[in-house]
Design brief:
271 residues, alpha/beta, four-stranded mixed sheet
Length: 271
């Protein structure tokens, strides 16, 4: 993983390098806190599809450039669409993300999320789609959708209850509050946490260990653990898209996004 990442075929918003059977993917919008726009979501979707067919790749590691893993959906882009009452601004991001999360979960190789900083909203759910999550001690996590009147997407309603149970998932969804890495570890959201300065080394070491293992057996284990989920996950992702589009069209969403950029508490009316 020491080779410098190069721009993936899908575009410079996602960087890719492959060394010794390990593919390293870096979400590369650091100036936007790696927020998911249509371009990045499409790049993730296309890259996971391609890597899944590459037998030379034994493990995939996903991380973010800069100080944040992924801040979730690009609210600047989403907000412009909502102000214009143009739902077409959101659906491509949702559809590309739907495909990316399904492929991420279903490709034969293990996927490790190396969470180097905040993972919020859809960004948290990108991490949850991975097989294994290693996080910096400084990382924070949040299902922030409720803060802006939106519905959890990118598989959150499927992955989160599996890991923490429906009651705790409900709390995280309803409040949109952030939790720190130690709390996330205690809840079972993370496999381990390490000091931020050690995250790259830890992710490299763990990925190398898996890459040196019996790939036939490891792929069979992944298929056994997650392969049967495909139809249920696809249904959940589709339901999320439908709910999200309705919430996106709501007055509460418009108010939530305006409040976010105006740095004030939102005044939701329930419509």
């Amino acid at each position: 993983m020491s080779n410098p990442p190069v721009a993936a075929a899908a575009g410079p918003v996602l960087l890719e390098s492959i060394e010794n059977g390990v593919a390293l993917l870096v979400m590369n919008r650091p100036d936007k806190l790696n927020a998911l726009n249509s371009e990045l979501a499409t790049a993730l979707n296309q890259t996971f599809e391609r890597l899944g067919k590459n037998d030379a790749v034994r493990v995939v590691v996903l991380t973010g450039a800069g100080r944040v893993f992924c801040a979730g959906g690009d609210l600047a882009a989403i907000g412009m669409g909502r102000e214009a009452r143009d739902t077409r601004q959101l659906e491509p991001i949702l559809r590309a993300g739907m495909g990316a999360m399904l492929r991420m979960r279903m490709i034969p190789q293990p996927v490790i999320a190396a969470v180097n900083g905040a993972a919020a909203g859809a960004g948290m759910n990108v991490a949850l789609a991975a097989d294994i999550r290693i996080a910096a001690e400084e990382a924070v996590f949040g299902q922030n959708f409720a803060k802006v009147g939106l519905f959890p997407d990118y598989g959150g309603t499927y992955f989160l209850p599996q890991l923490v149970g429906p009651s705790k998932a409900a709390e995280l969804f309803y409040t949109g509050d952030m939790i720190d890495a130690r709390t996330a570890l205690q809840l079972g959201l993370l496999n381990r946490i390490v000091p931020g300065a050690q995250l790259e080394l830890e992710a490299r070491s763990f990925a190398a260990k898996l890459a040196a293992g019996p790939s036939l057996a490891i792929r069979a284990v992944k298929q056994t653990l997650f392969g049967s989920e495909k139809d249920a996950l696809n249904r959940a992702l589709e339901a999320e898209v439908q709910h999200q589009m309705r919430c996106f069209a709501s007055d509460d969403c418009l108010e939530g996004i305006r409040a976010f950029f105006e740095k004030r508490p939102p005044r939701f009316q329930g419509h």
